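User: What would this chain look like folded?
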Amino acid sequence: MLLRKLGIFLEAKRHLRYVIFKKKYVNKFKEKRLTLIAKKTSVQEEVDAAKRNVQKIKADVEDWCNKVDKKIDQQLKTEYIETFEQQTESSFLELFQRKYANPLIVGVGLMLLQQLGGNSGMAYYASSIFVKAGLPSAIRLQVMSIIQIPVAIIALLLMDRSGRRPLLLVSASGMCLSCFLIGLSFGFKEITDLKALAPVLALTGFLVVATAFTIGLGGIPWIIMSEKFLINVKAQAGSLVTLVNWSTSWIITYTLNFMMEWSSADVDISFFFIPPLPKDKDKVDHKEDLKTISIADDSIGYDFF
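Assistant: Here's the prediction, encoded as structure tokens.
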């Protein structure tokens, strides 16, 4: 009996020690877990604080950079104005100096190319040309309005991607083709078997005119002219090329009617030529030209593009 009680006592003591051991280590585990959670929270708070500091520093740096950019822009504008005020206005005869020969030839040449393409003559006499070709005169407005607006949008999208020179070459080639087609339509009108093709060729020619002129020769010569000339001669050069442009337009418009009366229309409208087109300078080349010309030469050392 005594041994049995002793065994029960030892068994109860062993269970008690197990319970005490378990409770002790469970409490230690909870304490460590709480400690880790506290450390994690503290680290997360430090990370959030570091992120806030970085964002604040980034904002301060961006604000400083913006102020520096504005200050530099203001300084450049001030220097530009001061340099411009120091210039003496160039006379019209100075435009014909050797250093301005290349931009002058390109500007005047493009204006001549624009008008000698025949767009003015065909646009002003479109109604009479349509009537002589056997088409109703009212179709001219419909053709121009339908073609020119979408083609102008396409030309704007292609100008920066393809470049101006390819567009000018395509436009000039299209004007040559249109002159040939319209002249050929008047030639077919005199041939009995081909007379039915005359209205079709005339309409096709005017479609090509509207497309080709709008895509290149209509606006690109004016853009190149404004970029080619230095600022001290830009006013004189702009006046000269504008005078050449409208004078040539008047000559073409005035003489075309007489030429169509004196000879066959297919001969007059079919005149075309293919001039060489020099490569226009880009912004870098133009800036290099500006740097090489000093203030003593009545030129500007700065230009904004």
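The chain is about 80% helix and 0% strand. If you want, I can go into more detail on any region.
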